[in-house]
Amino acid sequence: MYAEKFLPQVISWRRDIHTHPELSQHEERTAGLVANVLERLGLEVTRNVGGFGVVGLLRGNSAGKTVGLRADMDALPLNEETGLPYASENAGVMHACGHDTHTAMLLGTACALSEMRDKIRGNVKFIFQPAEELNPTGGAPGMIRDGVLENPNVDGLFALHVWPVYETGKIALRSGSCMAASDRVFLTVHGRTAHGSRPDQGNDAIVTSAHIITGLQAIISRSVSPLDSAVLTIGTIHGGYRYNVIPDTVKLEGTVRTLNPETQSQMPELISRTAKGIAEALGGTCDVEYVKGYPPLVNDAGLAEVAGRAVRKIHGDDAVIIADQPELGAEDFAFFARERPAMMAWLGCRPSSVDVRDAAMLHNTKFCPDEECFKYGIDYFVQSALDFLSF
Length: 391
What we know:
By secondary structure, this protein is α/β, with parallel strands linked by helices. The protein has helices at residues 7-19, 28-40, 99-114, 140-145, 205-222, 261-281, 301-315, 333-339, 374-390, and strands at 44-49, 53-59, 62-72, 121-129, 156-167, 171-173, 176-179, 181-190, 194-195, 230-239, 245-246, 249-258, 285-294, 297-299, 320-322, 342-350.
C-alpha cells in the first residue's frame, strides 16, 4: 500500500548496505548514507547521536504527539557464505542479523511519510541506531544519553526485526515479555599444576571446571520457577598447556538469558555461590564476574494493539500472528522500552517455498531474508505511526 512506490529504491539501499557492512561503533559509511537520504527528504537531521547514530525529525502540519521509529545499522563479525551478487566486500564482516534490511525499510518509511507530512498531526522521529550487537553495552543507551527521546519528547516507539521463523507476509506480535535479558558471566577456575601422570600432586582445574559447568545447570532446573524461563550457556572454555600437564587455570565465559527482572537479579548470587562452592569442595577456587547486559524487552500492551490494528487494516487478519511465547534472544531496543512505551514486531522473511527447517536463521553465514518482506515492514511502520499519532 504505502511501500510499492519506494520498493526499488529500498532494495537498492539494502543491497548497498549489505555489500558494505560495518561492525558496531564503525558504522560511518552507513550513517552517512542514511543522513544524506534524510536530508534530501527535507527532514531535520542530527548526526553522531550516541556514536554514529542518526536521527531524522519530520514535523507534521499541526501540534501533537511524537512517535519514534527505530532501526539498527551494525553488522556481525562473520564471513558471508550466501553467494549473493551483492555479498559483503568487507572480509569477516556480514549483515547476518538483518540490520541492513531494517535500515533500508526505515528509509523507505521516511520517504512515504515525508510525502504525507501535510496530513500528519505531530512528529515522527526516525532513529537509526548503531551498535545493537555490542552486548553488554549496546548502542541504545548512548543515544538515550544524547537526548534522542527529547526535544520533542517521544511518546512511543515502534521497531521490527526480520524473523525467518515466520513466512514472508506474516508479522508476529506479542504484548508483554517479548525478548530476554542478556547478561554475561566470566569464571576463572584456579587449581594447582602437576604432571599428568601424578594428578594427586596437583589440583585439576579442568576437572573442577567440568563439575562447575554441570552444577550450573541445576540453577535453571532447581532455582528458577518452572513457570519462568531462563538459559545459562557456557560458550567458551580456555585452559591447559600440554597434553600431559594438569593445568592450574581454566577460563569460562557464558551467557545468561532471563525474562523476569526478579530472576535476572538473582542470577549473579546463584552462579557465584554454585561455582565457588563446587571449586572449594574440590580443593580449588573460582573467581566470578557477572556483567549485566540488555534488560528484558517488554512490549507495551496499548502499542501492541495499535500495531495489530495497523497490520490488519492494510494486509488483513491473515497477516497477523499473535506469538504465544517470548523469544530468549536479546535486543537493546529494550533500553528504549524502559524509558517509553514501545513495541517490537517480528517480520516474517522466509519464502513460503522454504521449509523452516531448511532456512538459515539469524547470525548464520548464509542468512538471506526475502526482499518481498520489505513492503510489509514499511507498511507496518507507516500505518502504526499514523494510527499512534491520530489517537
